[in-house]
Amino acid sequence: MHYERSPRLLEDMGRPKVPTVGASPLTAPTCRLTICRWLIQWFLLTMLSMSMASQSFAQERLEILPIRPFNVDIALRQAFTPNDREIALQAGFTALTYGNFEIGATYQYFSLSSNEVQADVHSVYANPRWNNFLDILDFPTGTPINRLLRHVLFGPLEDRAVPFVGVIGGAVVAGPGSRAPTYLYGADVGVRFPVGHSIALEFTLGYFVYGLNFSGQGNDERQLLFTTGFFF
Amino acid sequence: MTDRNAMSRPRSRTAQRFGFLALLILTGWLQGCGLLIDAAELVVPVPALSDGVDVVCRHRQLQVGISVEPYPPFVFPVVQSPQGLSVTGLDLELVQHLGAAVSTYCGGTPIVVVPHVVHFRDLFRLLTEGQLDLFVSSVAYNVPHMKSAGLAYSAPYYPASGLSAIARRSDVVEHVRAALSRPAADAGVLERRRKALDGLIVAVQEGRSAHFYAAANLKGARLLLCDSLTGAWQQQDPEVDVILGKEPVLNFLLTREDQLKDWRPVMLEDGSPFLLNREFFTVVMSERSFRLHWLVNDLLFELEESGRLAAMQRRWFEQDYRFAERAASEGLPAVIPPSVNPTAPSRCHWAQPQ
């Protein structure tokens, strides 16, 4: 889980050596460039997913801040060895919907405590999603691939599942070391099962890349996060 | 300085542990959050869930789903008119009345009715996810099946009918009649009618009430699942013995559809229709659209009491007309998503043995 960029490698590439401990690793112009590049990529991905999602169902309503579905996920782990615990909290709401396109806004908090790492990471991120993305595979006429995949993946709930893919983009607001505020990006895939009465069961596998690491001495901490819970 | 740091570290660790313990206890109380909501409501009333009709008023559009498979005269096939793709039928006239009722509810704001041609199988998802406000296509609410669960159904808008049958050959009609006339001591009327279809090739429209009924009750019949009724009567290899479907739709087709001139209804000995159940056609909505549900029920009551509902039924069932002309003159412009192809050839396949 610790991926640190090698100063030696950067030096070999003709770039200045970047200190990784005790000082801001990126100069202001480099940082601005990185954030700009990342923002452009994220914007393009969002637009792409939005256009693909809107193709699947014409003449949609644009709902701004529908709030629902919203979610609160909590994870607690306390080991019986001293100083070893983990708290994760994630709370999100729906910021925008347009047919099969949806943007969620989420606050995420991670607190890791062990003899090696002490970290409190606060992040906010947006999560544009393309719901029912499998339905783009509606061919060939006889046995459409999307029907086949839905049947294989969801069995008797094939017509009640909302599979989605999404991208994640946001910022680490506070965290260990001196890199925060910094970027956060990733992607997620999952499925939502609407249950009824505004409740849905959702499974999500998210891949996150943080612009810092949890020991506060480098960047690009990565983690996979599997969440399952109810959306209201 | 060093001493002070050494003192503060254990103190902060104790505070952390205390905080963690408090969080753990609070989490344990989550099952009692109903009490928290009660307490919050003492201060500020918790806002009610947004109802579907609020969204309709805000967007000035009533998104209506109709089945890609036509059910004349409730929903006719989509036709190309000078204004574009257009759809008509009794159900479409009904939703136009509904659009007017919602408009009144929204304070006179004009509401545009937008019919979306969708697959029946996607109904739950589209209604629950808020992409459609309601769905009409002669849907019977009293069909016990998973696909019918989790949705809200209005009061019926058509008199009680049921599942009936038509046959191509007269010997099949006679076969059914003969089976019905055989005395069976311990079998009731319904059981005798079901047994009368044993050994026959029975075609039904996949995913609709006839399919669910046949799968649950007609164990002795060979069940053929077709995309549409058209696919069922055009099926040649094997040839279909009986088509099971909604009685009003089958009767209407028998009188209007040229391709069905060789077909006849399966009747009982006394000339009454061969019915297998009772069905009540309703408007389908999301479970949480309470206000919309009230509006639809109120409108249906008004239409029924004023006699306008009966007049609508007579207009579509009894008058002589060409549906393409009505679609051009009074039809609604249909929205067809790319994943739906109304002109796709209909296919049939055998049902999996239960």
Plain-language structure description:
- The complex is a heterodimer of chains A (232) and B (354).
- Chain A contains 3 helices and 8 strands; from the N terminus they run H-H-E-E-E-E-H-E-E-E-E.
- In chain A, 19% of the residues lie in helices and 47% in strands.
- Chain A is of the alpha+beta class and 232 residues long.
- Residues 1-26 of chain A have low confidence and may be disordered.
- Chain B has 354 residues and is of the alpha/beta class.
- Helices cover 42% and strands 18% of the residues of chain B.
- Chain B has 13 helices and 14 strands.
- Chain B has helices spanning 2-28, 33-43, 52-59, 90-105, 123-128, 170-181, 189-195, 209-217, 229-234, 247-256, 290-306, 308-317, 323-330, and strands at 61-67, 79-81, 84-87, 112-118, 134-140, 151-153, 163-167, 201-205, 222-226, 242-246, 264-265, 281-286, 332-333, 348-350.
- In chain B, the strands form 3 sheets. A 6-stranded mixed beta sheet of chain B has the order 11-7-10-8-9-14. A 5-stranded mixed beta sheet of chain B has the order 4-1-5-12-6. A 3-stranded antiparallel beta sheet of chain B has the order 2-3-13, with helices on one face.
- The interface between A and B is large, with 36 and 36 residues.
> How many domains of chain B, as an integer?
3
Beta-strand portion of chain A reads over 45%
Strand count of chain A: 8
CATH architecture of the largest domain in chain B: 3-Layer(aba) Sandwich
Find the CATH topology of the largest domain in chain B.
D-Maltodextrin-Binding Protein, domain 2
Biggest sheet record of chain A = 8 strands, antiparallel
Radius of gyration of chain A using CA atoms only? 20 Å
Strand content of chain B: 15-25%
CATH class of chain A: Mainly Beta
Mean pLDDT of chain A: 79
CATH architectural name of chain A: Beta Barrel
Helical/strand content category of chain B: alpha/beta
- Ranges of chain B where pLDDT stays below 50 over 5 or more residues in a row are none
In the sheet with the most strands of chain B, the strands line up as 11-7-10-8-9-14
Strand order of the largest sheet of chain A: 1-2-3-4-5-6-7-8
